[in-house]
């Protein structure tokens, strides 16, 4: 015997790397983490596995973040799906901006895709617009019971008004992007994995 | 029949050896030095194995021990800085960035999840169960491993099971006998003797090597002893060096028999399941116990659950509300010789004990610490945290504010509410809005 290497081979490692842009080392670490979260060794993660992360459960947006891993009503997320969502938070590196091949799909961690991820945290019904009602809901998640309904409505109204350009009472993705054009999105929505 | 005679002879020699070398010395608390020799051989073998592994592993495939080193670059700035604002600024669409980033940092790496699985070793200790990252090195190493398996399963395991069996039976019989005597100092002395002897036998059944530090601070009568919790063996380790009154639920089966027998010889505090829910009742009974200065110190594990011995989690305040003197004790196991952590969701008690008995040994350090009492103006929670810090520093463990109950239940909403409060203060400011 001796010892068996316990790095389970990651299926489709190459295609995942191409799609997400993670390095082999980062991918290994994330795979290690995926297996640690998958307590019952099912091979996929359920909502409960993610809810058991203490620091995530106390995050006011925790539930929304967990939902983003389960698009289209699915109940499980496998490793490629897990990494695909995490890829949004990969820091933007020089090699990403160099290869501006118009035929290739945009990398998952581009500024546009990062903004799109944030947009989707607001836009629950996926209709492409953040309505006043959806804005209120997110605000309520972040403040809990501390703020009155009236104050919250004022804030929501003001925010929608400021961002809304075509006057339809909702914030579309283009308007969202425009109102945040001065924001350093790349830095705020990035997590650097140490080698 | 010759075969039966031979078997009978072997059995009797075996038992005499066990009696002579292990049981009798336990009664007098004397050690014959056999375990020291065993430990020396073991340490030499493991050192040799480590050198072989280090020589053999190619450099690229060494994955750094990720249990304690962070894998992501953390931005630990408080909420105000992270939201790029001053106090009293208004809500921005980009505020979600901060929370989502924090959320993802938690998904990639969090402090708590890794505390409920066994500690990773830096170098392999020739046990299959700790074989996480190590690869085939050489034939010689494999041969040593095979030899190790034979020694552990065929020589050590039967010996240990015999000892454990003898230890527990002696405990039950001994305490029942002592319980028949009328209350007197003779009874107390005898009950101490029985407890200590049986605990020593049980510790030897696990090949336990325990170092006690600062024995002058050993918990006194009428006090409460508080320690970090890694496994049920903690109890065994502490009672080998002194007698304590245990606190706990009444169990059925073997544990129940042991509990009922023990309480005959000296007063422990066992609760029915229904009584445990009534906190006032529990506190009252414990207060009565420590008020009687002649009774043994109570042993409590405030974490409430087993943690993997790399950190100390939240101490529940209940034990610190009783009053009285608290004697903190830090227990740290050496994972090189055997992993003592009981992962109750993975292993039940019997398989856990079997794992313990087929490890090399259980090596641990126990530090007794000076007594602490609640100060003026300190509430139970602050006091609990103070004791927790002291234990963590002494044992070389990290401190975590999280509740050990997280491994079973969802986190309490109060922690989420704190974050929400902070955020509200920022965007609503002093109550005035544009």
Automatic annotation (TrEMBL), chain A:
Cell location: Cell membrane; Cytoplasm; Nucleus
Keyword Oxidoreductase tagged: no
GO cellular component: cytoplasm; nucleus; plasma membrane
Keywords: Calcium, Cell membrane, Cytoplasm, Lipoprotein, Membrane, Metal-binding, Myristate, Nucleus, Phosphoprotein, Protein transport, Repeat, Transport
DNA damage as UniProt keyword: no
Pfam families attached to this UniProt entry: EF-hand_5, EF-hand_7
Superkingdom of the organism of origin: Eukaryota
InterPro entries: Calcineurin_B_homologous, EF-hand-dom_pair, EF_Hand_1_Ca_BS, EF_hand_dom
Transmembrane segments: none
A molecular-function term among this protein's GO annotations: calcium ion binding
SMART domains assigned: EFh
One of the GO biological process terms: regulation of protein import into nucleus
Annotated EF-hand domain residues: 25-60, 110-145, 151-186
Family: Belongs to the calcineurin regulatory subunit family. CHP subfamily.
Annotated protein name in UniProt: Calcineurin like EF-hand protein 2
Biological source species: Piliocolobus tephrosceles
UniProt gene name: CHP2
TrEMBL record, chain B:
Residue stretches making up the Phospholipid/glycerol acyltransferase domain: 223-334
SMART domains linked: PlsC (SM00563)
Family the entry assigns: Belongs to the 1-acyl-sn-glycerol-3-phosphate acyltransferase family.
Gene Ontology MF, one: glycerol-3-phosphate O-acyltransferase activity
Membrane-topology annotation of the record: Multi-pass membrane protein
The keyword Transmembrane helix belongs to this UniProt entry's keyword annotation: yes
Transmembrane segments: 12-34, 161-181
Gene Ontology CC, one term: endoplasmic reticulum membrane
Keywords from the UniProt entry: Acyltransferase, Endoplasmic reticulum, Lipid biosynthesis, Lipid metabolism, Membrane, Phospholipid biosynthesis, Phospholipid metabolism, Transferase, Transmembrane, Transmembrane helix
Lineage: Eukaryota, Metazoa, Chordata, Craniata, Vertebrata
Subcellular location: Endoplasmic reticulum membrane
PANTHER family: GLYCEROL-3-PHOSPHATE ACYLTRANSFERASE 3, PHOSPHOLIPID ACYLTRANSFERASE
Example of a GO biological process term: triglyceride biosynthetic process
Pfam families: Acyltransferase
Native organism: Piliocolobus tephrosceles
Designated name of the protein: Glycerol-3-phosphate acyltransferase 3
InterPro entries assigned: LPCAT1-like, Plipid/glycerol_acylTrfase
């Amino acid at each position: 015997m001796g010892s068996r290497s316990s790095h389970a081979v990651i299926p489709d490692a190459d295609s995942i790397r191409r799609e997400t842009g993670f390095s082999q080392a980062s991918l290994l670490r994330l795979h290690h983490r995926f297996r640690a979260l998958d307590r019952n060794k099912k091979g996929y993660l359920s909502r409960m596995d993610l809810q058991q992360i203490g620091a995530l459960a106390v995050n006011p947006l925790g539930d929304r973040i967990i939902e983003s891993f389960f698009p289209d009503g699915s109940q499980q997320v496998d490793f490629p799906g897990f990494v695909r969502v995490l890829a949004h938070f990969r820091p933007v590196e020089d090699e990403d901006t160099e290869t501006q091949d118009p035929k290739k799909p945009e990398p998952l961690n581009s500024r546009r895709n990062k903004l799109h991820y944030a947009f989707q945290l607001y836009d629950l019904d996926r209709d492409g617009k953040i309505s006043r009602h959806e804005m209120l809901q997110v605000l309520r998640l972040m403040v809990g019971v501390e703020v009155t309904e009236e104050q919250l409505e004022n804030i929501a109204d003001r925010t929608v008004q400021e961002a809304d350009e075509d006057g339809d009472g909702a914030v579309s993705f283009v308007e969202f992007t425009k109102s945040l054009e001065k924001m350093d999105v790349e830095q705020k929505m990035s997590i650097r994995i140490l080698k | 029949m010759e075969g039966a005679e031979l078997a009978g002879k072997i059995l009797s020699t075996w038992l005499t050896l066990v009696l002579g070398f292990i049981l009798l010395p336990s009664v007098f608390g004397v050690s014959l030095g056999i375990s020291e020799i065993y430990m020396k051989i073991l340490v030499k073998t493991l050192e040799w194995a480590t050198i072989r592994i280090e020589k053999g592993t190619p450099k690229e495939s060494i994955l750094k021990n990720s249990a304690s080193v962070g894998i992501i670059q953390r931005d630990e700035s408080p909420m105000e800085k992270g939201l790029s604002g001053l106090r009293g600024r208004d809500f921005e669409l980009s505020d979600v960035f901060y929370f989502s980033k924090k959320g993802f940092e938690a998904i990639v790496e969090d402090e708590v999840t890794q505390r409920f699985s066994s500690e990773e070793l830096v170098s392999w200790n020739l046990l299959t169960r700790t074989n996480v990252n190590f690869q085939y090195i050489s034939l010689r190493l494999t041969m040593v491993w095979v030899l190790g398996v034979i020694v552990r399963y065929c020589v050590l395991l039967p010996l240990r099971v015999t000892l454990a069996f003898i230890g527990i039976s002696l405990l039950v019989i001994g305490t029942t006998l002592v319980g028949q005597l009328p209350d007197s100092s003779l009874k107390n002395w005898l009950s101490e003797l029985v407890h200590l002897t049986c605990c020593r036998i049980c510790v030897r059944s696990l090949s336990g090597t325990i170092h006690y530090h600062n024995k002058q601070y050993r918990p006194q009568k009428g006090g409460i002893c508080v320690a970090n919790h890694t496994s049920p063996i903690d109890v065994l380790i502490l009672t080998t060096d002194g007698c304590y009154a245990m606190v706990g639920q009444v169990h059925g089966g073997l544990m129940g028999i042991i509990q009922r027998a023990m309480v005959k010889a000296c007063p422990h505090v066992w609760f029915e399941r229904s009584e445990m829910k009534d906190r006032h009742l529990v506190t009252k009974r414990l207060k009565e116990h420590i008020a009687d200065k002649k009774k043994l110190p109570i042993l409590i594990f405030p974490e409430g659950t087993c943690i993997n011995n790399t950190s100390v989690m939240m101490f529940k305040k209940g034990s610190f509300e009783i009053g009285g003197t608290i004697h903190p004790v830090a227990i740290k196991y050496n994972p090189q010789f055997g992993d003592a952590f009981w992962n109750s969701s993975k292993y039940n008690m019997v398989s856990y004990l079997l794992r313990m008995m087929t490890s090399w040994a259980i090596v641990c350090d126990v530090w007794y610490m000076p007594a602490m009492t609640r100060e003026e103006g300190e509430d139970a929670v602050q006091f609990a945290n103070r004791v927790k810090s002291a234990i963590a520093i002494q044992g070389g463990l990290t401190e975590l504010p999280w509740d050990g109950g997280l491994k079973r239940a969802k986190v309490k909403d109060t922690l989420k509410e704190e974050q929400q409060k902070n955020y509200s203060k920022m965007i609503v400011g002093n109550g005035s809005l544009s």
